[in-house]
What does this fold into?
Amino acid sequence: MKEIIVQKFGGTSVADIEKIKNVAKAIIREKNFGHDVVVVVSAMGHTTDYLVKMAHEITEKPSSREMDMLLSTGEGVSIALLAMALQAQGCPAVSMNAIQVGIMTEKVHSKARIIDIKTDKIKRHLERGEVVVVAGFQGVTEDLEITTLGRGGSDTSAVALAGALSAKRCDIYTDVEGVYTTDPRIVPNASRLGEISYGEMLELARVGANVLHPRAVETAKQYNVPIRVRSTFKLDNPGTLILGVDNMELHRPVTGVASDLSQLRIVVCDVKDNPGTAAILFNGLAIANISVDMIIQSYARKDLNTNDIAFTIDKSDKEQTLRILEKVKAQLDFSNVHVDDKIAKISIVGAGMIDRPGIAAMMFKTLADLDINIKMISTSEIKISCIVAEDKAKEAVEALHKVFNLDCDEIAEVKGDLPDV
Ligand code: ASP
Ligand code: MG
It folds into this structure.
């Protein structure tokens, strides 16, 4: 049997008929490299947004079952048109929705997780030399209810399908050329990365690099499926390969720099230094489904027996958080609450920083040299984040990008056994 490549095309890649014909060419090109090809597509252009809008013109709260019935139709249109475009260009092809394939999910409307994907029917079509075009984003429950995987979910469909089919790779075709060392709109010197690990991609996706659905990256990591992010409009461009660290050459400690302006910081001042204080505070936020990112508790001075607890949340959760703090004030006996909503979270990410001391110190020194004050710091194995003043974000990102040698004209080449680009 031939090796299988899963190709996924997003909404912008199939936005109109000309583009669909173009996508058919990219599929035939891949097939001519000697692969069996399974394609996953999203709905055309802004179809899904348009469907959501129509539903909301009927009622503010449409039932989630009917929303899934409605939204899943978008992908139904693009698979059939793409299969026709392939056939018209002489390539045998067949389209299939989630029911026909057997993309089994839990019974949760609007954000279902995939439990299992049946592969026998797809494989039968591949054996006949056909390209199989599968609807992304949708799934089906055991009792044949239609579900969807959440907005942007067709990346996850594609990666899960690649895992189930033991595909050689999952290629995500999109309107950007790959994953960059930082946002090219902030730093024009940003370069495309040849490769990046799942862990780094997840960290970058969380801090706002908008290329891939984070769940797709998690799924790829779980099944060890290499993903390639590449441009639909520049097929000769190798894009960025996302894979396990074991297969990577770690040439540099830092792979990317990101800034996130979506958070604010809250400081709860002079909280009693007793067991249970943090539990009461964060339990209140958890019940309200407010996710907290960084948390810092200050050192408690013996004479005062109090400390300060600072944390960051999404700006949109501000009012609700303040209401919750008001409720627990009597219990926690803090003096006041300080809100700072002009902050930026600046992060450096890199699997190469593991066991390399001095990376954090270098980050802090770079900020210090620019006279940028650090308000909070947090670290993971492959990420260091600092909270700074919002108006310093651009300067900080530019300087860190330079210090960690990411400003380069040469784009890192894709390594590994990939003769077919
Ligand atoms: N069509 C769906 C959406 O717009 C799924 C996707 O594009 O990934 O969210
Ligand atoms: Mg999408």
